[in-house]
Write a structure and sequence with these properties.
With 332 residues, the protein is mainly β. About 16% of the residues have low confidence.
Length: 332
């Protein structure tokens, strides 16, 4: 506990482990701490962990307990786990390896790497807007420099984003949902840490792949968005690009047969008279902005065209709104 007013300055070398009051663990090779300033700096081979998240491959972490902030100087890696992995209880030098091994064998919903710096700001449970039942895992993580992140919220979905700066907002049970309302395993299964929002700034590219089969043996549908910034609301399924950009949608699967048609649709019915069919590759460009939202959200608003059984991924039936100098190219 770095908040002890009796400790003006504490130095420690070797395999150092700091156990914070909210349950987080920080491990490193050297510690400099101040109880008066409620701060600590760990250097060397540094690792920060909670029950369902691990940040490693870092060389320096600065902790501000008063502000509930942890800052990583330099590059690193963050992994969000699909379920809780208990942290070791023993006071041994092998705790860092135990945490890494358990994280490597766990199902990962999110993995991100960066080159410059990262800042974790934990949600304040005293703040009504940030109230959560899982304070160690609810908050905002900002990654800077050569960011490459992969999220797999469902077995049949894989999202990858590359950008200069990435903000990840994690929400807990208290943020509008109870534990009983939490999605099943494979969809944000960690009850008190869910990726709610993703904001990419600087030459951002978001690519989403969705499969019909859980083993991903079939051909995926692909959606790719390029723009100066991308704001992706993971829960609502809404993507917003402010400024010029490009959207690519590719679906090369064979058309599904209609009821009673064993061999698929007739050739004359496979493509609409306009030549712009649902299968193939479509490219959309614009200069003003983009908004992509799922049909299920439109159905809730009374949209008669939205289906009740729309898939809950980026590539389900969607409404796309483009602004300024719009061009659409399609190859069936």
């Amino acid at each position: 506990d770095t908040r002890s007013p009796e400790i003006d300055r504490l130095l420690a070398d070797g395999d150092v482990e700091v156990r914070l009051a909210d349950g987080r663990r920080v491990l490193g090779e050297r510690l400099e701490a101040s109880g008066v300033e409620e701060s600590a700096v760990l250097t060397g081979d540094v690792l920060l962990a909670t029950a369902n998240a691990v940040l490693d491959r870092a060389s320096r972490i600065e902790i501000d307990e008063a502000g509930r902030i942890a800052r990583v100087v330099g590059g690193g890696r963050f992994r969000g786990l699909a379920s809780e992995t208990p942290l070791p209880d023993t006071d041994t030098r092998s705790n860092a390896e135990v945490i890494r091994t358990r994280a490597a064998s766990a199902v990962q919903e999110l993995e991100a790497v960066w080159t410059d710096e990262a800042t974790w700001a934990a949600a304040d449970p005293a703040d009504a807007a940030d109230a959560t039942d899982g304070p160690p895992d609810a908050g905002t993580l900002v990654l800077r420099g050569g960011v490459d992140a992969i999220a797999e919220p469902r077995l049949r979905e894989r999202n990858r984003i590359r950008t200069a700066e990435l903000t990840l907002v994690f929400a807990g049970d208290g943020d509008g949902e109870s534990a009983a309302d939490a999605p099943p395993s494979g969809e944000f299964a960690a009850a008190d840490r869910r990726l709610a929002r993703l904001i990419a700034r600087g030459d951002a590219r978001l690519e989403s792949r969705a499969w019909l089969r859980e083993d991903r043996a079939d051909l995926p549908r692909v959606l790719a968005i390029d723009g100066p910034s991308i704001d992706w609301d993971q829960r609502a399924g809404i993507a917003v690009v402010d400024g010029p950009g490009r959207l690519l949608v590719r679906d090369l699967r064979e058309p599904e047969p209609r009821p009673g048609e064993a061999d698929g649709p007739d050739e004359e019915d496979a493509l609409p008279a306009t030549g712009f069919g649902p299968r193939g590759t479509s490219q959309f460009t614009w200069t003003g902005g983009l908004r992509l939202e799922p049909a299920e959200g439109l159905a809730a608003a009374g949209d008669a065209d939205a289906g009740a059984d729309t898939p809950a991924d980026l590539l389900g039936t969607s409404r796309i709104t483009l602004r300024d100098d719009v061009e659409v190219l399609h190859q069936g």
